User: Which sequence fits this backbone?
């Protein structure tokens, strides 16, 4: 049940696929050299493996518990969070002026993966805090930024996102929480929020809630929602803590997984209204919340990769050890470790290939985000931003859907032992199941991909990416390596399948919206399958080129790319068939 | 959280697809008319819905508990089991001479589905008892049959299968439990058995364990294993219970799902050896155990359909009720029940289509089993037996794999509520996860399908079934109904894909065993996808023909067949690509 971060693969992706050298050439990121990246990743790997990973399974057995409004987190979480904070991890990618280290998100991504692989429940607290920092950084007033961001970066305080209400899940238009102006620039917030991750806990001195609510006479729907900062404890001018605010944790949920992460129901305003501060403009709360959500959506995609890798490592260790049955090829008269059996190899190979492909896709997206943020060239910023925005729903949707499949395969590799909770494999299967739901379900991601990311620009970004896929196809064609030609045919078919799907969506969205949105999830899965496969093809080419540096590593990479091509890329035409048939075939719910 | 058995669909499958009229024409099954079937199914539906279904979720929260060697089952289980026994359900398909009702397995299958849909944990006890009855019926001596079968049929006693040991899971060759002949025809059994479903409980007076063990000087491997009947309480000549036998339940497992079904570790022979009776011949224990296992494998496939249907019904009810977001086609300015959203329709439609396709495939298999058992024509018996044996691993493997997908979709339909245990959707996701593991993992089923069912007869049965698929294609081609032509193309591609895979397996098994067995699971999934799709095509044709009888029912069936074609049958060529590429592509575990 240990976890060893795949630092070598991570660095390979950073350096050869995701453009770390280009990012390190950006103004402000000069320190993000490959050497720095390696040092940071190795330190992060130690913390994740030594401190967080051992707490993961015990915390599932003895999860966070609510008592009388307070939440006691799982054993060891408090001390681990202290270590996390003191080592400065929370500030890694945040600006130096606020006490952060100003490293690019591209280096932050593997560290986030490690944190989540080691302990998904624990990692949610920093994940949400990051989102709150981002939102304040972008939309908060100078006073709010000054008073609240610093203590969140040091880990003294943490942050939350308060969107969901009992009647308002995916549909934020239905939010009913209220904000009453006091007259002095502050507001009194009241209402009930549910599913608030780390909405209450004992890891930090204060909790900075970012809360969506409506002003009196605000327009109906999403155009009447404002964002407020509501601290658990009020903060004095000098930054010290004052009185308890009017927000109470009335319960936490009994969940399928991530049991150590407290999911709170928060009651605001039972005693006259919680004091809140407007973030951004009135009625424009969703703008700021979307910043937070986009950061969080990408981060949840990385959680998918993380849990997939953890499940893979767990299953791999078991398969190397468990002896059962003679090999089908007659190569031994004795029973052998099950890793030698073809179907176990298929399962582990698929788990590995999906994980590595997801990782490459996500880090490539992070590279675009850094370039979109920091490139000195305005045109380049725009271009990278468009690609990043196209890829975020795919990273979120595809990497989380695949994580459920991978975690399920991990249970299967263990046979009967996989179903016993003590083994630990079942926890990943349970934990992973939230990932396709929170921060926007797969359908929400898919609708975003269809609507805002494909239709709005007439398929321009989609086609630009497909043109890049074709360049990789040409490079595969030019390569003399036999693995390159094995990769070529499935990549070409997948690229062509995705291209057909894009055309279908553009042609039919206006006339047949139900068919197109009914095919949105298959379209997202097709895009993910193809674009992650494209990264594996790029990885293959890079490994062929650099094989001499580390033959064992690169040979494994070349084989993993083939495994992806056989087991996953081959499914792309079938997904396109679903999209293209959506207009003609009936659906019977 | 109620369950309403889909009696109408079940009867449609029995009468129009699975050959109930032919079965009712067999000697001994004269009473199995469509009217009897309907009456039995309706009564079974009442029992399942009224008595068992309400116990399912509470039993998950308060599962079976071990104390000092005894197991207390979940609240209400004892009384429900009494009702089950007194109504005669356990004996439904067993011979009249032993106190059963002698109905065909074809009528037993839907009743078994209902039982499992209502309460999977409960239903495991009758499922295992059925297996024990089958094994004794086939291999037990007249004395053992006389003494043990009757009380199992009345539900006074229950039965178990004792195969697994800590070092012997899929690999029965590694069994170490010992049987020492006493000299009077009985044996003393010692050893440890794990994962014994209902190995200890309080539902019945006695438990009849069927135990695999080795005689002294037995050959190594599977050819040295014998089967023994080891009762929990010894049975006197007059059938009354005597002393407690030397078998103890030392613990039960803490599992991911089916928590109310006690999974026991049994210790045999700590006090000198448990008294056991040989079943069948010495060293031929696997022959009898395989009878039991084949019955159980089919039954587990039905469990997959059952849990899929329960998950579907649960999600459907939620989707009809939960209001969220406006429709994408602009047909309403208000938020609507989510069942109106295209992706929710896709998910529910897929769940329904997979469930109904699995049901049809399974019941068709049961029809072959009845014909194999009771046909007066020896050639016909042989032919149906071969088809049944080909289909059993597919029913087990495919229906259980799909049940995990369906249960996972069920969670997804619920959004965040799906992750909260109180909702109930998560229980199906946890419960379903055992189905691809016990009674032989999907890989074990796939190896059986490749080795004993495809290679051994040179692909004869596979090709005979494919010829029948082509007949259905011709019927679709001949039909003027537009849905028939939509079904034709995907069915034809799937049939051709399966045909290619069969050819590949036959051509390469000897020369490339690792590649072929590494493709065994994709082959099984391809076979299931295609053959279940074939049943949906047959259903479509039948519904077109009988539409006038019940237009709403048949229109839904025709739409469901299309949904299956679009979302599942379309994936068959991709699965074939995996099989056909197995020789060329590397695998990197």
Assistant:
């Amino acid at each position: 049940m240990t976890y060893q971060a795949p630092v070598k693969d991570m660095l390979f992706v950073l350096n050869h696929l995701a453009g770390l050298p280009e990012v390190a050439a950006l103004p402000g990121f000069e320190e993000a050299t490959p050497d720095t990246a390696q040092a940071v990743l190795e330190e992060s790997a130690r913390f994740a493996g030594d401190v967080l990973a051992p707490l993961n399974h015990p915390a599932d057995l003895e999860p966070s518990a609510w008592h009388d409004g307070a939440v006691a987190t799982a054993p060891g979480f408090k001390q681990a969070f202290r270590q996390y904070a003191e080592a400065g991890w929370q500030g890694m990618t945040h600006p130096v002026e606020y006490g952060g280290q100003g490293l690019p998100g591209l280096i932050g991504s593997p560290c986030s993966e490690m944190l989540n692989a080691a302990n998904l429940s624990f990692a949610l607290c920093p994940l949400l805090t990051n989102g709150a920092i981002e939102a304040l950084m972008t939309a908060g007033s100078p006073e709010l930024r000054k008073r609240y961001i610093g203590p969140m970066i040091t880990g003294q305080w943490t942050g939350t996102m308060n969107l969901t209400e009992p009647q308002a899940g995916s549909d934020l238009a239905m939010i009913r929480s209220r904000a009453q102006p006091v007259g002095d620039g502050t507001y009194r917030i009241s209402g009930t929020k549910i599913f608030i991750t780390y909405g209450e806990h004992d890891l930090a001195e204060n909790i900075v809630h970012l809360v969506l609510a409506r002003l009196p006479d605000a327009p109906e729907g999403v155009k009447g929602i404002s964002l407020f900062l509501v601290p658990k404890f009020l903060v004095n001018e000098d930054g010290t803590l004052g009185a308890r605010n009017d927000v109470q944790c009335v319960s936490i949920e009994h969940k399928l997984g991530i049991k150590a992460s407290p999911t709170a129901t928060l009651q605001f305003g039972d005693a006259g209204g919680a004091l809140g501060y407007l973030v951004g403009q009135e009625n424009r709360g969703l703008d700021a919340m979307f910043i937070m959500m986009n950061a969080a959506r990408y981060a949840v995609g990385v959680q998918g990769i993380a849990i997939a890798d953890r499940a893979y490592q767990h299953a791999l260790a078991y398969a190397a050890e468990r002896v059962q049955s003679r090999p089908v090829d007659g190569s031994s008269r004795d029973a052998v470790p099950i890793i030698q059996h073809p179907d176990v190899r298929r399962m582990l190979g698929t788990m590995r290939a999906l994980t590595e492909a997801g990782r490459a896709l996500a880090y490539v997206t992070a590279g675009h985000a850094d370039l979109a943020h920091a490139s000195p060239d305005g045109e380049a910023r725009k271009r990278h931003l468009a690609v990043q925005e196209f890829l975020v729903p795919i990273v979120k949707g595809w990497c989380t859907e695949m994580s459920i499949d991978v975690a399920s395969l991990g249970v299967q590799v263990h046979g009967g032992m996989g179903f016993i909770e003590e083994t630990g494999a079942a926890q990943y299967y349970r934990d992973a199941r939230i990932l396709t739901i929170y921060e926007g379900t797969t359908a929400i991601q898919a609708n975003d991909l269809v609507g805002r990311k494909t239709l709005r620009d007439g398929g321009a970004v989609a086609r630009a990416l497909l043109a890049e896929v074709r360049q990789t196809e040409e490079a595969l064609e030019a390569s003399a390596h036999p693995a390159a030609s094995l990769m070529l045919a499935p990549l070409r078919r997948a690229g062509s399948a995705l291209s057909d799907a894009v055309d279908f969506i553009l042609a039919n969205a206006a006339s047949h919206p139900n068919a197109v949105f009914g095919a949105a999830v298959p379209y997202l899965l097709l895009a993910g399958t193809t674009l992650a496969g494209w990264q594996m093809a790029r990885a293959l080419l890079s490994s062929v080129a650099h094989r001499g540096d580390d033959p064992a590593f690169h040979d494994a990479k070349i084989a993993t790319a083939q495994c992806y091509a056989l087991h996953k890329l081959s499914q792309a035409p079938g997904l396109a068939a679903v999209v293209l048939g959506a207009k003609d075939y009936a659906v019977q719910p």
In short: Residues 445-589 of chain A form one domain. Chain A touches chain B through 93 residues (CB under 8 Å).
